[in-house]
Design brief:
The chain is built from 5 helices and 4 strands. It has helices at 19-31, 47-58, 95-105, 109-124, 132-153; strands spanning 2-7, 39-44, 66-70, 87-93. A 4-stranded mixed β-sheet has the order 1-2-4-3, with helices on both faces.
Amino acid sequence: MNIEVANESGVIIPDFREMELAELARYVLDAMHVHPQSELSITLVDTKVMSDLHEKWLDEPGPTDVMSFPMDELKPGHPGAQSGPGMLGDVVLCPEVAADQAKAAGHSMAEELLLLTCHSILHLLGYDHAEPEEEAEMFGLQRKLLLTFLAARQ
């Protein structure tokens, strides 16, 4: 997997290495049987940049926590049959918004960024949460992936 991570936000995240995002992404993509030659970009941006993206692409004012920009519309594979290689897309995170959400949820900003990264990758793979059944599937998978990733790190 070619996973690029860039922190362009100017935010220093306590007790966190940006490469943890790449490690999580690699774990999720492996678990979802995405071809190992696939590519993903993860960029952390400030609230101004995120506000501009949010307005341009979703016609919504203000910053949001994360946005996903799919490229080749890769889908998950299954055991014994990976998806084809390609450019999965871009994940754009806003640490400042994530910090507020983390505080409200009672966990660290690093944990929130990991959650948002996993969530966004699932969106890039075609998962959604517009309908109750979709939400149950996506959030259940997100929880399983995050918990197994965190357990494997211990």
